[in-house]
Write a structure and sequence with these properties.
The protein is α+β, with helices and mostly antiparallel strands. The chain is built from four helices and seven strands; from the N terminus they run βααβββαβαββ. Strand 4, helix 3 and strand 5 form a beta-alpha-beta unit.
């Protein structure tokens, strides 16, 4: 059984280890991540999200099966997208670092994490959820589109772990 819950105090090292293991595993796959250990995500990213109450984990049998952050922080370049909903930052949520453990992929955990993100955002009166993903992340794009996220085009974003490259932008209106 999958449980999705807000991360608790002291879990930041375990969650960073989850992401680091995912980076190692996905490095030479068909859908490589562009996250880099020691660059993004780093412990301060995880700890900041945990302290803000914005970090969530999916657990299966006591093990981390997935994780994500949902907050109101839009990356530089998000303002260039023709979003459906225009609103103040408090009305817009952004999903970051949504990931499922390789051994748990294909079990619907990504969809359950998106459902939880929607539940959280509705309780906060958010109007729109946004996210970005790599254009070659076909499994992720299929998940977002089947869930109801609208593809809003590709734009160049400049992140520390990737440099300036194209990302596919998505929006889910609440």
């Amino acid at each position: 059984m999958i449980e999705i819950r807000r991360a608790g105090c002291g879990e930041e090292h375990t969650i960073l280890e989850f992401y680091d293991q995912l980076i190692d595993h996905m490095q030479d796959t068909e859908y490589p991540l562009r996250w880099k250990k020691g660059v993004y995500p780093v412990l301060s990213d995880i700890a900041d999200a945990l302290n803000m109450g914005a970090l969530y984990v999916a657990e299966e049998d006591g093990n981390i099966a997935g994780a994500f952050i949902v907050n109101h922080i839009q990356g530089e370049g998000y303002q260039l997208v023709d979003w459906n909903i225009k609103g103040r930052d408090t009305e817009i949520a952004v999903i970051h670092l949504l990931a499922t453990a390789p051994e748990c992929q294909g079990k619907g955990i990504g969809r359950k994490m998106l459902e939880k993100a929607v539940e959280i955002c509705r309780s906060e009166n958010v109007s729109s959820i946004r996210l970005d993903t790599l254009p070659w992340n076909l499994p992720g794009k299929r998940l977002y589109e089947s869930f109801g996220f609208q593809y809003k085009g590709d734009i160049k974003l400049d992140y520390p772990s990737t440099g300036k490259i194209f990302f596919s932008m998505y929006e889910f209106d609440l």
